[in-house]
Amino acid sequence: MVIGEEAGVPYCHVSAGAVCDHILYATDFSDTAERAFSYVESLVQHECNRVTALHVQDRTLIASHLEARLAEFDAVDRARLERLQRRLLDLGATQVDVALPYGRPAQEILTAAERACASLVVMGTHGRGFFSDLFVGSVSHNVVRLSPVPVLLIPPIR
User: Of 43, 99, 131, 137, which alpha carbon lies 20 to 30 A from 58's?
Assistant: First the structure.
C-alpha cells in the first residue's frame, strides 16, 4: 500500500498484495451482514490484522421522526460493534476500530474507506431494505460502483 500526498490532497494506492492490510467491514446488522462478518473472521484468522467495523446511522431513516432517539440508537449499535471488535481481537487481529457515522450509508462507507486508507471493503449485498430479495442492495451497488478499493460482497443465503 502506498500512502502519499499529491498537490495537497492525501491519497492511498492499494497493490494486489496488500488487499488484507486494512479491512473495512460495513454492517447494518442484518443476517447477510452477519454472514459477511464470518468472512472477515476468516480473513483475520489468515493474517489480516487490521479491521474497522462500521455501521452508518442512516439519516434518511432517522432524521424525519427518530432523531431525538439517535443517542439511544448510537449506544445500542456501539455495543454491537464493540462485541464484533472483541470477537476479532480474540481471533488475533492486532487493531480493530469501530466507527458509527450519521449520514447516507453508501457515502459514509466510501468516506470511511478513503479516510482509513482501507485496502478492502467487506459487506453484504442486501440489508434490511424492502426490495432486498429483488435487487443487489442500493448501498452495496453504489459502494461497488464508486469504491477506490476492492469490495467483497457476500450474498444472502438462498
Answer: 43
Helical spans, DSSP H, in 12-133 = 31-45, 59-62, 70-90, 105-115
Long-range pairs of 66-75 with CB within 8 A, sequence gap ≥ 24:
70/102, 74/100
User: What pLDDT, in 10s, does the model give residues 116-136?
Assistant: 999 999 999 976 554 444 445
Is the pLDDT reported for residue 108 higher than 80? yes
CA distance 101 to 116: 13
SS3 81: helix
**Alpha-carbon gap, residue 38 to 61, rounded angstroms:** 27
**Do 11 and 114 contact (CB within 8 A), yes or no?**
no
The domains of the chain, with CATH numbers, are 18-154 (3.40.50.620)
The CA distance from 121 to 93, in Å, is 16
pTM for the predicted model, two decimal places: 0.84
Q: How far apart are CA 90 and CA 85, in angstroms?
A: 9
